[in-house]
Design brief:
Strand order of the largest sheet of chain A: 2-1-3-5-7
Radius of gyration of chain A: 17 Å
Strand content of chain A: 15-25%
Chains: A alpha/beta, B mainly alpha, C mainly alpha, D mainly alpha
Distance between the termini of chain A: 37 Å
Helix content of chain A: 25-40%
Shape of chain C: globular
Helix content of chain C: over 70%
CATH class of chain A: Alpha Beta
Largest sheet of chain C: 3 strands, antiparallel
Number of strands of chain A: 7
Structural class of chain C: mainly alpha
Number of domains of chain C: 2
CATH architecture of chain A: 3-Layer(aba) Sandwich
Oligomer: heterotetramer
Number of helices of chain C: 26
Largest sheet of chain A: 5 strands, parallel
Radius of gyration of chain C: 27 Å
Largest interface: B-C, 82 and 88 residues
Chain lengths: 164, 313, 675, 217
């Protein structure tokens, strides 16, 4: 595409990120690790999701909700990650990868279960391929309810961690 | 003695400013994409966080996992110390001869490549292989543009080149000089893994070059790697800027001159970084096997620069 | 010790080594004869040093007494300072290789013939380097050729691949001898003398000179393994026992460079002037082509062999640059280029010895030299890993190893040659720099690949997973480790002492523009200074704060060990998923497809039930030496054809032979009756 | 106008001419090539003007104007009409990298051969002659390695620019009429080829001259 045209588009579009809602109040009984304040690298783990949550995560990291402005970023390797965003029920085949991914994440690390499936298997409860919910295998620090959860909810959960 | 002092100042300033440079570049990009962006100080927070995290070591990985990041960091620091960024003075025993600078850069390159191979994963080896191929194909352009710049000065010592260019403006605008600097810009983009050669913000392993080599490192190892590669960017970008605008560098230890030099350097560097980031918004990463074409193009520019300064100039 | 004394010692020790090889029982033969060979090497070093420093020149005259008293000139061994340099190189490499051989040599290589050939090989090379006249030069040359062929043939019984290699080597090396002999004959007949001094004094020119020059150049280029005469190298080096490969690659090949330097500098300088571009082209092309082939091969020793072609190419490049520059009257820079050539020779001798010895240890431990089946050896073979790593850094010309100083000097010579002088320089210098830069870059990739795939990552085969231990209780197994360590120290040492070394070499050439800088670095007067110590200090100064930071941080957060490398959550990541040496070089094969012409084959067999579903996919890619395929294969084919034709002439029928003699008789009669 | 300014002008113009010619072997989009042609034409005009100014020759200044008009105006316009910004089909016979290196080699060759031709003369103009030769050679190179008619035209124009350049630098400029004639001839050729190209595209969708050997419809 002709750069000038692109430049025109950019200038016309301007800034289309939503204005930032007030920062969530830090809750006292679940304090977040101090060392993660201001910078959180997220590794997304799909343990058997319907991809509804993926779309919402995509939206949360997209231009409109722009969770990056609070210091959260998606990364390619759990070695780089502080937070594992787990979506979907845990299927039999994904049990080991889930455990390995958590093992491969350096401490301090958090596990956020995103969506009802991750919380309590949602509508897939009792399906033949399902091994259980995330909390059955690894201890979950934060849960984002909803099927799928709204991007705002995901953003808020991550803001709890970054504290911005 | 004074030279050593100036060099120390340069290293400190450059190291301190480097995360800001990255922050500015990311911020500019974010704004042009309509996002708010994490703020220019984000890289500082990232590094602080990484230092506070525990590094991992896979059973069966060798000492390279621990050593390579430090080697990269120290080599980058050496480059920062040698390249004329703030001062044109250099430690008499270690003149910033460009061939030496390049080979020290190569030490860092090799450290990264070995790190990629060390874990024995598929992606690490892939990144390492691509990284080394690009490094190998960049080499001719680097030396050729150095050659082109050194001809009018009769020396391959960077500070002499910069001083000479600063002395008379006509040197800067000769076709030869321009071509060489353009070629050098391509080199910098390739060496520091920027677009269109490599995409620093990709999450797709198959498109990675730099990222896929460091997939295995976490915690402080990652911090050293990140800072090390950022410092390379600072040094090379700063070098290009100083070749294009060879003014304001300090050659003596007068506080005022040094202050001016520091400010000038910071401004030049940040502006250049912002420009690069803005340009990157308009670019897509080229296919891996289009990269040699790009490098061949820049090599031809550098070569014409040499021919021009010998025959036409 | 004087040079003459040294030479006498060398000969005595050679005799001793041969005798020991024959009398000492199998168990201690390697120890005894290898020890004697080490002695030869050390004596060679002393001879060389004496020759480099001695004024007036030492001369050893060996009269040839043949019953019937043909008036043959006596053999004249008078090592010049330049020859001294090569004596030192040969001696040092020989000593280290012999020491390694004590532990390494086994089977045929440790046989009577094996060890005597080794000693004679050393003697031949030293004679070449010390020769003062044509006859002794050729004598040494042929001794060297024959002895090395014997050594190469050591394993012919166990490995069939050895035979073709030996045939190639024998043919090429004797072609080289042939062209040398012819060339020397021309020169000597024109100069009416066989001593080098008088040949140099004769200032031969004209067509005879040109013919002689070309013949000698071909002869030396063949021995030096320059493209397109390099074909024997990647075949012979891999098949020879590793300590012999080291000797061949690090010492013998250098004598080709020695010859080229003498030829262009001393014997026929006037003739060779116009051929500067030819020499330069030979060097530059060998460099680029050699390293390109090295970067894509996955056979470790083949890789090292091609990299030898590259390094010799760089040395000859330096010679060519020197010739060009002196043609243009820029003698100071030309001298620097020549010093760079010698530096390259010396440094290559150091690191290539270690590399080949390391390859030998790997072969010894795993029985593999295919990088695609190696890996993870750093854990079982730390000493080899360290020494090989250091030598690989030298080969990649990284600071502050020996290779770095050498290539830095050459680059400085290139950049400071004034291209405005004439059009040839203006075009040759940039092109040389460009190709040389490509060579350096590919060299880097090559040795990262070699070290990374052999020593790092996980074993790619069962053999590599369970290697033989580095040190056994076997007598002299420590010798291998020690030899490698000595070589590695030499690589670093030459890198650190580049100043004194370069100064010494330039004094050999009678050039004074190179001095040792304040801290013992290398200073090219009015051009630049390279100071390894200062660089090291700078690195230390910058590493100090980093080290402090590391100490602080690691006290706060300790390192955790996990069981697996990150494989995307999979536990079943097998070593077969790793990148191999072949896949490492794949991008290059694609980028340089035009130059390499790889042959690829892709077979897809479908399932019987469904022609869409694929049953198995077989992909094969082979990259051969294009020079060999395009040039040598046709020549060999033509020779075969000619041979067949010739055979038709003699079919064993007595009448035909009578016919031949009758025809011959008639011809003779006609000739004699002609007025 | 003082000599140093003239010589630097000449040098820069020559550099631009050479660079644009080399880049022509790199570009694949017709629009890009035409843009480069504009720059090249302007550089040529600058060169002529500089020479005219140095020799105090008014006629040359007029010629410069003509050159600017035709080479930077009419020709690119005519070509642009043909190209209409669309990408030419991947029409290079060799890989772009090879094409570029080929152009470099040709440049070197040009310098090598025309060194005797320029004799001892060290003036900026004389030093620029090899660049003109290089343009001619590169023009041929483009004609050789490209298939599409538009690229052929581009190569042809580059060739012509080279010829014109050498002519200006060696002689004291061609007579006005000759130069005009030559330029107009080129223009004519381009216009004819342009119509031809349009016809080709209409008859069988591509403008690849290879298709002229076999008609498939």
């Amino acid at each position: 595409m002709n750069p000038f045209h692109l430049l025109k588009l950019i200038t016309r579009a301007g800034r289309f990120a939503e204005p930032a809602p007030p920062a969530p109040a830090a809750d006292a009984e679940h304090p977040m690790p101090q060392s993660l304040r201001g910078s959180v690298q997220v590794r997304h783990v799909d343990t058997g999701s319907c991809n509804g949550c993926e779309i919402e995560i995509g939206a949360a990291f997209g231009g409109v909700y722009d969770v990056e402005r609070y210091g959260a970023r998606l990364v390619a390797s759990p070695r780089h990650a502080d937070v594992l965003a787990v979506t979907g029920v845990v299927t039999h085949n994904m049990v080991e990868p889930l455990l390995r991914t958590v093992e491969a994440t350096p401490r301090p690390r958090l596990v956020i279960a995103i969506g009802d499936c991750a919380h309590d298997c949602g509508l897939f409860a009792g399906a033949y391929g399902v091994a259980g919910s995330v909390s059955d295998f690894v201890d979950v620090d934060l849960e984002v309810p909803g099927c799928p959860p709204r991007p705002e909810a995901i953003v808020e959960a991550l803001r709890r961690v970054t504290g911005r | 003695m004074i030279a050593t002092l100036l060099v120390i100042v340069q290293v400190v300033v450059a190291t301190a400013i480097t995360p800001l440079l990255l922050g500015v570049m990311r911020q500019v990009r974010a704004r042009m994409e309509g996002r708010v962006g994490p703020g220019v100080l984000q890289p500082y927070r990232d590094v602080r966080k990484l230092l506070a995290k525990e590094p991992l070591r896979a059973d069966g990985s060798s000492g390279v996992l621990i050593a390579a990041p430090l080697v990269l960091l120290v080599s980058s620091l050496m480059v920062v110390a040698l390249v004329p960024l703030v001062t044109t003075a250099n430690i008499p025993a270690v003149p910033n001869d460009l061939f030496v600078v390049v080979s020290i850069l190569l030490i860092g390159t090799v450290a990264l490549a070995l790190l990629g191979l060390d874990a024995g994963t598929a992606f690490g080896g892939m990144g390492s292989s691509r990284h080394m191929m690009i490094a190998a194909l960049v080499e001719p352009t680097v030396l050729m543009s150095v050659y082109a710049l050194s001809i009018p000065v009769g020396s391959s010592t960077l500070s002499k080149i910069v001083v000479a260019r600063g002395a008379d403006v006509t040197r800067v605008v000769t076709p030869a000089g321009l071509l060489a600097v353009v070629a050098l810009v391509v080199v910098v983009l390739a060496e520091t893994g920027r677009l269109p050669v490599d995409n620093p913000s990709t999450h797709l392993e198959l498109t990675m070059i730099h990222e896929s080599m460091i997939l295995e490192s976490g915690g402080r190892d990652l911090a050293w790697l990140e800072v090390g590669s950022w410092l390379r960017l600072t040094a090379l970008l700063g070098l290009v800027v100083n070749l294009a605008l060879p003014w304001g560098l300090a050659d003596s230890a007068q506080p005022l001159a040094v202050l001016v030099a520091v400010v000038a350097f910071i401004v030049k560097l940040l502006v250049a970084g912002a420009l690069v980031a803005a340009a990157e918004v308009f670019m897509a990463k080229v296919r891996l096997f289009k990269v040699p074409e790009l490098l061949a193009g820049s090599f031809v520019l550098a070569f014409l620069a040499v021919t021009a300064s010998y025959l036409a100039g | 010790m004087t040079a003459v004394g040294g030479l006498v010692t060398v000969m005595t020790l050679t005799g001793l080594a041969v005798v020991l090889a024959f009398v000492v029982p199998q168990r201690y033969r390697s120890l005894a004869s290898g020890g004697a060979s080490m002695g030869i090497g050390i004596a060679g070093i002393f001879t060389g040093i004496a020759a480099m420093t001695s004024v007036p020149k030492a001369v050893l005259v060996i009269p040839i007494a043949i019953p019937g008293g043909l008036g043959l000139d006596p053999l004249l061994l008078s090592p010049t300072p330049l020859g001294g340099v090569f004596c030192v190189v040969v001696g040092a490499v020989g000593a280290v290789a012999a020491l390694y051989g004590i532990g390494y040599a086994h089977g045929p290589a440790a046989s009577r013939s094996g060890w005597s050939a080794f000693a004679v090989f050393l003697l031949g090379m030293l004679i070449v380097a010390a020769a003062g006249d044509v006859v002794s030069f050729l004598l040494g040359w042929e001794t060297m050729a024959i002895a090395s062929t014997v050594l190469l043939l050591a394993d012919h019984a166990v490995r069939p691949a050895v035979r073709p290699a030996a045939v190639w080597y024998a043919v090429m090396t004797h072609l080289s001898f042939l062209s040398l002999a012819t060339g020397f004959a021309l020169v000597a007949s024109t100069a009416h003398s066989t001593t080098f001094t008088q040949i140099a004094a004769a200032h031969i020119t004209g067509p005879t000179g040109i013919a002689a020059f070309l013949l000698l150049l071909v002869g030396f280029a063949t021995k030096a393994g320059l493209v397109p005469l390099h074909v024997w190298l990647p075949r012979a080096h891999p098949e020879a026992p590793s300590h012999v490969s080291a000797l061949m690659s690090a010492a013998m090949v250098k004598l080709g460079v020695y010859g080229i330097i003498l030829l262009t500098g001393t014997w026929l300088p006037d003739v060779s002037r116009p051929f500067a571009i030819l020499v330069l082209a030979l060097g530059v092309l060998s460099g680029a082509y050699g390293i390109l082939q090295a970067s894509i091969t996955s056979d470790l020793k083949r890789l090292l062999a091609y990299s030898t072609t590259e390094n010799v190419g760089l040395a000859v490049t330096a010679v060519g640059v020197g010739m060009l520059l002196s043609n243009a009257g820029q003698d100071a820079v030309a001298a620097i280029a020549l010093v760079a050539a010698l530096l390259l020779v010396v440094s290559h001798a150091a690191f290539k010895t270690v590399l080949f010895l390391g390859a030998g240890t790997i072969l010894h431990a795993t029985g593999e030299r295919d990088l695609d089946r190696l890996g993870g050896l750093v854990r079982s073979h730390p000493v080899t890993a360290w020494t090989f790593g250091i030598a690989a850094m030298g080969a990649a010309a990284l600071p502050v190893t020996s290779g770095f100083g050498a290539e830095w000097t050459l680059l400085q010579a290139l950049v400071h040659g004034d291209g405005r002088a004439n059009i040839t320089l203006a075009l040759a210098l940039p092109v040389t720099l460009g190709l040389m830069a490509l060579t350096i870059g590919l060299g880097l990739l090559t040795f990262v690949k070699a070290f990374g795939t052999a020593f790092l990552a996980r074993p790619r085969s069962a053999a590599a997973a369970t290697p033989a231990p580095e040190f056994t209780s076997m007598p002299g197994s420590a010798a291998m480790g020690v030899a490698q360590a000595i070589g590695a120290l030499a690589v670093i040492g030459l890198g650190l002492a580049v100043g004194p070394v370069a100064t010494g070499l330039s004094s050999v050439l009678g050039y004074t523009g190179i001095v040792t800088s304040e801290l013992g670095g290398l200073r090219l007067v009015t051009i630049g200074v390279l100071d390894p110590y200062a660089l090291g200090l700078l690195a230390l100064g910058l590493a100090l704060p980093v080290a402090l930071l590391v100490l602080v941080v690691r006290r706060r957060v300790p390192r955790r060990v996990t069981d697996l490398a990150w494989g995307c959550g999979g536990a079943r990541t097998s070593p077969r998923m790793e990148y191999t040496a072949t896949s490492y070089a794949e991008p290059l094969v694609r980028v340089f497809g035009e130059a390499l012409r790889p042959t690829r084959s892709l077979e897809v067999s479908h399932l019987a039930e469904d022609h869409v579903l694929e049953n198995r996919v077989a992909f094969a890619q082979q990259v051969t030496d294009i020079v060999e395929d395009r040039w040598y294969a046709p020549a060999v084919g033509w020779l075969r054809f000619a041979g067949d034709q010739a055979r038709r002439v003699q079919n064993g029928s007595i009448h035909r032979y009578l016919g031949f003699s009758f025809a011959a008789l008639v011809v003779v009669l006609i000739v004699v009756t002609l007025p | 106008m003082n000599a140093s300014l003239t010589s630097s002008l000449v040098t820069t113009a020559v550099g631009v001419l050479l660079l644009t010619a080399v880049l022509q072997t790199w570009r694949r989009s017709a629009a890009g090539s035409v843009r480069l042609l504009v720059i090249q034409g302007l550089a040529l005009a600058t060169l002529v003007a500089a020479l005219g100014a140095s020799r105090g020759d008014v006629q040359l200044l007029v010629v410069a104007g003509v050159v600017a008009l035709v080479k930077a105006g009419l020709l690119p316009w005519a070509l642009g009409r043909t190209a209409t910004g669309r990408l030419v089909e991947r029409d290079s016979a060799v890989r772009p990298a090879i094409g570029l290196l080929g152009a470099t080699v040709l440049t070197m060759f040009a310098y090598a051969v025309s060194d005797p031709l320029r004799g001892g003369d060290q003036s900026a103009a004389a030093r620029a002659i090899p660049a003109g030769m290089a343009l001619v050679l590169i023009g041929f190179w483009i004609l050789l390695t490209r298939h599409s008619a538009v690229s052929q035209l581009v190569g042809f124009v580059v060739l012509d620019n080279g010829i014109a350049m050498v002519a200006f630098l060696t002689s004291d400029g061609l007579p006005l009429t000759v130069e005009l004639g030559a330029t107009l001839d080129v223009l004519l050729v381009v216009v004819i080829l342009r119509t031809l190209t349009t016809r080709m595209r209409n008859t069988h969708g591509s403008t690849s001259v290879d298709d002229l050997t076999e008609l498939r419809d």
